[in-house]
Amino acid sequence: MPLLRMPICTSCHKPIAPYERGVRFRCPNCGEVDIWRCEKCRKQGNTYVCPKCGFVGP
After folding, report:
1. Structure letter (DSSP) for residue 7
2. CB 3.0-4.6 Å disulfide test: which of 4, 14, 19, 27 passes with 50?
3. Percentage above 90 pLDDT, the chain
4. How many domains does the chain have?
5. Could you tell me which residues are beta bridge partners of residue 26?
6. How many C-alpha atoms does 48 have within 13 Å on its Cβ side?
7. CB-hemisphere CA count at 13 Å for 23?
8. Does a structural domain hold residue 34?
9. Alpha-carbon distance 15 to 41, whole Å?
10. Is residue 31 part of a domain?
11. What's residue 49's pLDDT?
12. For 3-26, how does the pLDDT look when each residue is reduced to its tens digit (9 = 90+)?
């Protein structure tokens, strides 16, 4: 049986639980990387950095 891997928040690097209101979107700059943000980081406006192009977003 394969393990289910939870997505990791790009801002705080914690796993995003299935019931949590996290969000996934492509990097607005390069469009090549999926950015995951947990509910807490979204509400607090914590920054994230794209691992490919270095774009910093709110």
Report:
1. P
2. 27
3. 86
4. 1
5. 34
6. 29
7. 10
8. yes
9. 12
10. yes
11. 97
12. 788 999 999 999 999 899 999 999
